[in-house]
Amino acid sequence: MKDIDLQKEHYILYIYTPMCGTCALARTMLDKIESVHRETIFYEMNASLNPNFMHENKIESVPCLLIKDENEVKEKVYAFHSIPNIYSYLMKYKPELFVNND
């Protein structure tokens, strides 16, 4: 994961707080997905350091996966549930991950 350039038109942003146990579990799922694909897929933001962003985007809780596509917030995912659940969002918003380049 890496820090975000908020001016980008497309991104999937993982929002967390450092002392949140559920955030740590969610991060483990995202790290596993990135390790399988061997690339950075998710950007990250510490909610505690970005209160204006949290307010402007009406982020209700952490962890949150904020999905921005075509310069518009498309979804905010608060319940990560499982790796397959996260993949359902990736198939919708990052289909290029699933193209076989062989």
Automatic annotation (TrEMBL):
Ranges of residues in domain Thioredoxin: 6-77
Protein name (record): Thioredoxin family protein
Pfam families in the cross-refs: Thioredoxin (PF00085)
Gene3D superfamilies listed in its UniProt record: Glutaredoxin
CDD domains (UniProt xref): TRX_family
Domain of life: Bacteria
Record-linked InterPro entries: Thioredoxin-like_sf, Thioredoxin_domain
